[in-house]
Design brief:
The strands form two sheets. A seven-stranded mixed beta sheet has the order 3-2-1-7-8-10-9. Strand 9 and strand 10 form a beta hairpin. It is α/β, with parallel strands linked by helices. It has nine helices and ten strands.
């Protein structure tokens, strides 16, 4: 097969996949399993390359992120924080197979110590201290608030030693995925943030939570001011009726000054 035939064949295959996708609603994609194709593999590789041995996982939900790291070879410690009761039960069971994975007692992480009202959504991944915009939940029914719970809230700086007494000697990735509450988490995690080698944070492209303090440009400005460099991005939340991207996940590391 010559080059022209190869190009034409690939174009026909792509058009066929697009047509099948429109007809069936299924996205068909075959790619070599590499860091360019798999975000979890890419993150695990970057953690190894950066020498990370402690992941602080804030907003862990049912443990998808931490488990993917271990599946792809991460061997360090993980401390997961998850406030939603249903998700906390699931992550506690999920973590039992991994000796290095600690699930903290059920609490929210934020800017204060005390109690706070939490909005629980049909799909717990959307649950947040902040209420979700009605304009979003109106056509994303899984994001609808089904109940509210009064939960303990703690500053990360005040509880980290309970779960990792030697945290200051570790090489840390701080992961924050708290559905619009990132600024408050950061406010209560100044000591940990200052020590962190890496930061994985949810970045809003379009705000879907009421009163969220960090928008797209504010988040990027904060990251730049803290001295982090971008290493990886992943489209996380998409508004299915319109195709608009709501959130992306960004992975950043501080680099040694030459």
């Amino acid at each position: 097969m010559n080059l022209l035939q190869s190009i034409l064949g690939s174009k026909i295959l792509e058009r066929t996949k697009r047509r099948l996708g429109k007809l069936t609603g299924l996205h068909l994609k075959l790619k070599r399993f590499t860091a360019s194709a798999s975000e979890p593999l890419r993150i695990a590789m970057l953690l190894k390359e950066q020498g990370v041995d402690l992941v602080i996982d804030i907003g862990a939900n049912t443990g998808q992120f931490a488990e993917s790291l271990y599946d792809f070879g991460y061997r360090g410690r993980t401390i997961s924080f998850e406030p939603v009761s249903e998700a906390h039960r699931e992550i506690s069971a999920r973590s039992a197979a991994y000796p290095q994975w600690i699930v903290a007692e059920r609490m929210a992480i934020g800017e204060k110590d005390g109690e706070i009202e939490f909005h629980i959504t049909d799909d717990t991944q959307f649950s947040s201290v902040l209420p979700i915009e009605e304009s979003f939940s109106a056509h994303n029914t899984k994001s609808a608030i089904v109940k509210k719970e009064l939960l303990p809230i703690r500053q990360l700086d005040h509880v980290i030693e309970q779960y990792a007494p030697d945290w200051e000697a570790a090489t840390i990735l701080l992961k924050i995925d708290t559905q619009g509450y990132e600024q408050q988490v950061i406010s209560g995690a100044q000591k940990v943030l200052a020590k962190a080698k890496g930061l994985k944070i949810e970045i809003p492209v379009y705000k879907i939570y009421q009163h969220a303090q960090l928008g797209f440009y504010e988040t990027l400005h904060f990251i730049e001011q803290e001295g982090f460099q971008p290493f990886s991005f992943h489209v996380e939340g998409v508004d299915l009726p319109t195709g608009r991207v709501n959130t992306i996940d960004g992975l950043f590391f501080r680099m040694e000054k030459e």
